[in-house]
Amino acid sequence: MTINELERIASQVRRDIIRMVHGCQSGHPGGSLGATDVVTALYFDQMQIDPANFRMDGNGEDMFFLSNGHISPMLYSILARRGYFPVSELATFRQLGTRLQGHPTTVEGLPGVRIASGSLGQGLSVAIGAAQAKKLNGDPHLVYVLMGDGEQEEGQIWEAAMYAPAKGVDNLIAIVDYNKKQIDGSTDDVLSLGDLRAKYEAFGWYVLEMSGNNMQAIVNILRLARENAHQHRPQLILAHTEMGMGVDFMMGTHKWHGSAPNDEQAARALAQLKETLGDY
Amino acid sequence: MDFTIQNQKDTRSGFGEGLLEVGRRNPKVVAYCADLTGSLKMGDFAKEFPERFFQTGIAEANMIDMAAGMALSGFVPFTGTFAAFATGRVYDQIRQSVAYSNKNVKIAASHAGLTLGEDGATHQILEDIGLMKMLPNMTVIVPCDFNQTKNATLAAAEYDGPVYLRFGRPKVPNFTPEDEPLIIGKAQMLQEGTDVTIFACGHLVWKAIQALPILKEMGINAELINIHTIKPLDVEAVLKSVAKTRCVVTAEEHQRNGGLGDSIAQVLALNTPYPMEMVAVNDMFGQSGKPDELLKTYHLDTPDIVEAVKKVVARKQ
Fold first, then answer.
1. What is the pLDDT of residues A70-108, one digit of tens each?
2. What is the mean pLDDT of residues A235-244?
3. Domain range enclosing B204
4. What residues of chain B lie within 8 A of the CB of A133, using their CB?
5. Dist. CA A79–CA A82, nearest whole Å
């Protein structure tokens, strides 16, 4: 897929995010907007998947896990736009009885979701388990996991970070949505992550960095990571992103981490995001 | 049932033998252990199936979630550590990734309860049954001896869904038939009686068996039922028994709050209230000591069951 096509999809995903969060007056727009480009590139360009025949076991295809489940609007929009379920269902986000729960879950049987996430710090471990299952099955496909940067404060992350290199889990590509913000403020103010690259490298990971809102850069690095796979080391990509990317008044602040725009704000936001694939 | 003691064996060794057997039967069975391979008796499995055994180090949270990820692809993961670390330490991981996500993970938990002994209260978890039974989708099994723990392990491997399997450290009388399959959710009638029903689980089943002849001498004809599956509880068996005996004693190596007695009390209260006494730890932590000393000190021994029966039978009249 061309860079231009990927950017057009990302624009529609951002519209979906604003409309979903506005529609139910709750949810997490900031991180969703920031991570849109990376996950769009994964689902529409990088991953070998079969959305029309979703398999819970993920055998014979790449798998993706969203560890920071609160940016669910981004995931739901991309899954729907990729063909996992009807786009019209995005209108049910966070409504009673919906398959699009506030945080992703398997209970309602939404195609594309394999495990619940929301309580932070768990996705990397889940992804390692899935990656080792692929090795047992002789399945050469890859496992991707997206984590938040604030989520790196969870202790379990570092249990998993120690395990994967020690056990040679080299079919795993972990990505940190490195927007340097969390719900209470900047990560530097809340609990500094220090030199995240050096920390992962010291644990034995092969670390890549990319501009996480530049589609060409994203595609280049994700391709490189695929080429690097199966070489005895897990890989971590630091995706430098901007929380709220694409909506001027949502950028440069942590204030849109977990709050919804009102009617006027939603209109202002949508005016900045081109409708490319048709709104749901 | 014949209560002849076949031998003295630890329930954890029943798990170890069971795990090896399910490993041989089903190539999809894998095992994780958080640096307690010897304590959990998982060494034979690890030796025979090294590619299906994952040593996680002392990192239980990572272990539970890795097992959930592994289960996605059709594997049947067993996780092994002490009950204290298999539940309280990883409750959030079990809740979100195993129970809520309904993954086919088997949480094997050894050294449960006071009979862990000398290590003391940090390790003697008495709240784990309650923690696990509160989780939707979770099955909770507490077998009573070596043979039953082995058979429970076989049953857990066959069952599709999350299972918490609780067993212990000390060598105890092994008396259940080696070849009797454990049927999940089906209470085990050990002795029929008419005057009182004793519902017991785990190590306290043998303590209750020892109470039977003492009660008989007192002219009390007790019914004894082994509730090896705390959840789903065999409500039908409970109601059938109490309709006959009209009073109940429960016995378990666990807190009153949240344990077997709590489950039975709920059934009685909602259906047919009868007098009931609970032999359980009453809102306190354990301490170091020998297993038998501890059971005496915390009133979980055969004389305590006898006293509870006398009291409840008197209340009935």
1. 999 999 999 999 999 999 999 999 999 999 999 999 998
2. 98
3. 188-316
4. 69-70, 72-73, 75
5. 5
What pLDDT score does B174 carry?
98
Question: Could you give the CA distance from residue A146 to residue A70 in angstroms, rounded to a whole number?
Answer: 12
Determine how β-strand B229-231 pairs with β-strand B248-255. unpaired
Element (H, E) at B231: strand B229-231
Q: What is the pLDDT of residue B161?
A: 98
**What does the pLDDT read at residue B317?**
80
Residue B209 · residue B49 · CB < 8 Å: no
Residue B191 burial (C-beta neighbours within 10 Å; 0-12, 13-18, 19+)? middle
Interchain CB distance below 8 Å, B73 and A134: yes
Query: Among B143, B174, B205, where does a domain finish?
Result: B174
Asked if the structure places residue B179 within a domain, the reply is: no
CA distance B317 to B309: 13
Q: pTM for the full model? A: 0.97
Instruction: Record the tokens describing residue A162, joined without a space.
Output: 């120690």
Domain locations along chain A: 3-271
**pLDDT tens across B127-172, in order?**
999 999 999 999 999 999 999 999 999 999 999 999 999 999 999 9
In this complex, which of A117, A130, A159 lies closest to B72 when CB atoms are compared? A130
Q: What is the DSSP letter of A82?
A: H
For A36-62, what is the mean pLDDT?
Answer: 97
Q: What is the CATH number of the domain that holds B212?
A: 3.40.50.920
| B60 classed as catalytic | yes
Instruction: Give residue B1's pLDDT.
Output: 83
Q: What is the ipTM of this complex?
A: 0.97
CATH for the stretch A3-271: 3.40.50.970
d(CA B197, CA B238): 9
- Would B1 be classed as within a structural domain? no
8 Å CB contact of A159 and B101 = no
Q: CA-CA distance, B224 to B213, in Å (whole number)? A: 12
- Distance from B266 to chain A by nearest Cα, in Å? 27
B121 CB-contact burial (10 Å; exposed 0-12 / middle 13-18 / buried 19+): middle
Q: Which of B140, B174, B208 is the last residue of a domain?
A: B174
Smallest Cα distance from A193 to chain B, Å: 20
Are B147 and B77 within one domain?
Answer: yes
User: Best interface-test mutation with B: which of A159, A167, A169 has the largest number of B CBs within 10 A?
Assistant: A159
- Determine which one of B21, B60, B252, B253 is catalytic: B60
Q: Are residues B149 and B222 in the same domain?
A: no
Interface contact A159, partner B, CB < 8 A: yes
Strands (E), B111-211: 139-141, 163-166, 171-174, 188-191, 196-200
Q: Do B145 and B221 belong together in one domain?
A: no
Query: Which residues in chain B have Cβ-Cβ distances shorter than 8 Å to A115?
Result: 68-69, 72, 97, 101, 103
